[in-house]
Amino acid sequence: MRDSPKALLLRTNFRAFLLLDSLQRLAVVGSAAMSSVPFLNTPDALRQLANQPHSPCQCSLQHCAGWESINDTAWPAAHMQHVATLRDPDVYEPTFEEQHPNGTRYESADAPVALKFFPYNRCDVHACSQCQQHVLRYTEFGGYYVDHRARRLDATQISD
After folding, report:
1. Same domain for 55 and 130?
2. Model confidence over 67-88: pLDDT tens digits?
3. What residue numbers bound the domain in which 8 lies?
4. Would you place residue 3 in the very low, low, confident or very high pLDDT band (cuts 50, 70, 90)?
5. Dihedrals φ, ψ of 39, to 5°?
6. Is the separation of the CB atoms in 89 and 37 below 8 Å?
7. Which strands sit side by side in the sheet containing 146-152, from one edge to the other?
């Protein structure tokens, strides 16, 4: 005897629910499964990455001296390697407070990279396999949109 379409749908939805539930348990904030890359918690650790030699590149990230929107089609995913995170695994909800001691703004190219402040406390660090340039990336979640943003890492802007 065959199941009715309603019973089949119920069974499929239940299996999907179980799968989602098991996946959510794997990525709990503060768990070892949250990230497979190192957590950089000091400005010096981030400076070490930023000071690694890199060469000029013609990728879409060259205009990202300050925070810029980079959609999935512009993000050079084939060349980017996830190398570190600035997200503290022990902090469930990082602050949205920004640090601008010299009157800069969020999108300013000369805004400080302050690890404990927004948006850096929600960033991942990527490296381009073509030029070895490091790039910060985070996702802005607005009321009706999701916006991926990127900023090239400049060691001179990293603040203590």
Report:
1. yes
2. 999 988 889 999 999 999 999 9
3. 1-31
4. low
5. -90, 120
6. no
7. 68-69, 146-152, 134-141, 124-128, 80-85
